Amino acid sequence: MTIRLPDAHGRLRTYESRTEPLALTPGAPLTSRTVFSAAHVVADPYADTTPDSPAAVDWDATLAFRRHLWSHGLGVAEAMDTAQRGMGLDWAGAAELIRRSAAEAKAVGGRIACGVGTDQLASGTLAEVRAAYEEQLALVEESGAQAILMASRALAAAARGPEDYLEVYGHLLRQAAEPVILHWLGPMFDPALEGYWGSSDLDAATDTFLEVIAAHPDKVDGIKVSLLDARREVDLRRRLPQGVRCYTGDDFHYPELIAGDAQGFSHALLGIFDPLGPLAAQAVRVLDTGDTAGFRALLDPTVELSRHLFQAPTRFYKTGVVFLAWLTGHQSHFTMVGGLQSARSLPHFARAYELADGLGLFPDPKLAEDRMRTLLHLYGVTP
User: Fold this and answer.
1) How far is Cα 233 from Cα 258, in angstroms, rounded to an integer?
2) Cβ atoms of 170 and 126 closer than 8 Å
3) For residue 117, what are the contacts with CB-CB under 8 A and spacing of at least 6?
4) What is the pTM of this model?
5) pLDDT in tens, 332-361
6) How far apart are CA 376 and CA 320, in angstroms?
7) Do strands 220-226 and 2-6 pair parallel, antiparallel, or not at all (unpaired)?
């Protein structure tokens, strides 16, 4: 099968598509690492909406995708930035997503952790930020899911310095029913989070972050670090209290961070494990046997695709994730809440298709090629 794809300069070139996918089937639970896939939501393509409307979600397709991830032994990190929190999915939609996904997880025995934030606020005082966090924490705990305390735009705007972060997070951790995951999302994912933890100096911010954890180690299951800085993550995980895990959120360096070194390793909570789910699970099962080289041989080739999807402006990586879900057959359309399918260019999509096809990620390569041709026709290209 051949198809003509536009390159970054707008020139068409011939690409020979793969004819056979990788053999990736559900398998045994993962044992050596705890691995979450941050999952996307599937929009309802028939809803009469605008970019400013509340999200219209196709619940059947959204939950089916979560069952797909659970079937491969992955946990689901729900209502995170991959699900377009703050970029098309408001708190009312996120709350419904949490309720439905947590119930589905209970029904199938899947692991789930859900994002707790303050996105019902545009801005507010520290007291209002605390109350917003508390509302979301209560809902997640009532659903039976583990809580992920997400970084808050409202807190970043209201906080005067590190002491306000210590007070707000300390208050939340003291009342959390079970250990939570703390999420540090860098400004490359959300520019409104610049200076989180009270400083734009990452060393000072790291000290405050660790101070929060040290004061409540029994209430912190782990941390998710999304700074795209492998050395900083390794240094941070070495400073964690005993028993507190590091979940890598680094979509550029995840193979080496999960593999680890003689002093430790990272678990994973990654947006790239949405499109890579079955392959990532297979790689971790190889790692479960102690075969680090085999793990790297499977996962290292995926980094080029991940770096492509997460290229600047990084926050629009969700568009590529949903595009691949469409090509893979997990949804019948390429429509996103908030109209975010328009956030990347045709050359970007073409390169994503080529990289994913080269990895064998498409269970039905012919379907993927046909859908890529449909997109090319839509843009006026004869493939």
Assistant:
1) 11
2) no
3) 85, 86, 91, 132, 133, 136, 150, 151, 152
4) 0.96
5) 999 999 999 999 999 999 999 999 999 999
6) 15
7) unpaired
